[in-house]
């Protein structure tokens, strides 16, 4: 398998989308694990 000189824009976009969704999942998980009352 030969290494590509430049990365596929679609591949980069997919990576960004995956990272973004993973981040939002972590945020949601943290929000759910946090107690709802802050008082």
Annotate the secondary structure layout:
Elements (H helix, E strand, L loop, with lengths): L8 H25 L6
What does this structure look like?
The protein contains one helix and no strands. By secondary structure, the chain is mainly alpha-helical. It is rod-shaped and about 55 Å long.
User: Given the helix and strand composition, which structural class is it?
Assistant: mainly alpha
Biggest sheet architecture: none
The Rg value, from CA coordinates, equals 17 Å
Number of helices: 1
Broad shape? rod-shaped
- SS strand fraction: under 5%
Helicity range of the residues? 55-70%
Low-confidence stretches: none
Average pLDDT taken over every residue: 84
Tell me the series of helices and strands, N- to C-terminal: H
Structure summary, number of beta strands: 0
Descriptive terms for the model:
39 residues, mainly alpha, 1 helix, 0% strand
Question: Brief overview, please?
Answer:
The chain is mainly α and 39 residues long. 64% of the residues lie in helices and 0% in strands.
């Amino acid at each position: 398998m030969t290494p590509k000189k430049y990365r596929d824009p679609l591949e980069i976009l997919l990576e960004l989308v995956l990272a973004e969704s993973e981040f939002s999942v972590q945020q949601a998980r943290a929000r759910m694990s946090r107690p709802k009352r802050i008082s």
